[in-house]
Design brief:
Layout (H helix, E strand, L loop, with lengths): L7 E11 L2 E7 L2 H4 L7 E4 L2 E8 L3 E6 L1 H6 L10 E6 L18 E11 L2 E7 L13 E4 L2 E8 L3 E6 L1 H6 L10 E6 L1 H11 L4
Antiparallel strand pairs: 1-2, 1-6, 2-5, 3-4, 3-6, 4-5, 7-8, 7-12, 8-11, 9-10, 9-12, 10-11
């Protein structure tokens, strides 16, 4: 389980790809990896992945075909920056929202605009997650916990404060870029209950 509060930006150092299976090596700080062990979870751009190897400032994860299909990992290249968050402890404060690290889909950036101290990002999302995004609700974009500003039938917008823009990869996005999306867990359960006729 994660909070959507990014701890640092890491850097992709090696990609081994065979079909839709990827072995990914990422560089991170000694501080982040100090107590990190093989078998531990790390969210990379919002995706919960398990360490299969770990050194002082590097760790390696396996990405399976299902994750490959649902995320932007197929588009990553060596040198790309990624958002990193270690799994939360039960004693941690929950200052973002409950993020499972299970990506639902990807969305495409349609527009970036500045509004005083805020960076407004507008994304187009696929129809299959319609109803899971609500204005003033929570959403995780590349692992970053954000509040939805507004939503239409096929788009939604979020607003980044300067700290979030600088400390995550979201400020570097360009029009047309794809991002990983995890909608709010509670909203998914409500939508499913409606679908099966229990609400």
């Amino acid at each position: 389980m994660f909070t959507g509060l990014i701890q640092e930006k890491g850097c992709i150092k090696q990609i081994k790809r065979q079909g839709q299976t990827i072995q990914l090596t990422c560089q991170a700080s000694k501080e982040l990896l100090e107590s990190y062990q093989i078998g531990d979870s790390m969210a990379i751009n919002g995706t919960c992945l398990t360490a299969i190897n770990k050194e002082a400032i590097y760790f390696t994860v396996d990405i399976m075909p299902e994750t490959f299909k649902r995320t932007t990992f197929s588009q990553l290249t060596v040198g790309d920056e990624v958002n990193l968050e270690r799994a939360m402890k039960l004693s941690d404060r929950l200052e973002g929202h409950l993020v499972a690290g299970h990506i639902d889909t990807t969305a495409r950036l349609l527009q970036k605009r500045i509004l005083e101290n805020a960076l407004i990002l507008t994304f187009q999302y696929p129809i299959e997650i319609k109803g899971e995004i609500i204005a003033k609700g929570s959403i995780a974009i590349d692992g970053v916990s954000l509040t939805v500003v507004d939503v239409t039938a096929r788009t939604f917008s979020v607003s980044l404060i300067p700290h979030t823009k600088d400390q995550t990869t979201l400020g570097q996005l360009k029009q047309g870029d794809q991002v990983n999306i995890e909608t709010d867990m509670i909203g998914k359960y409500v939508k499913n209950q409606k679908k099966v006729g229990r609400l």
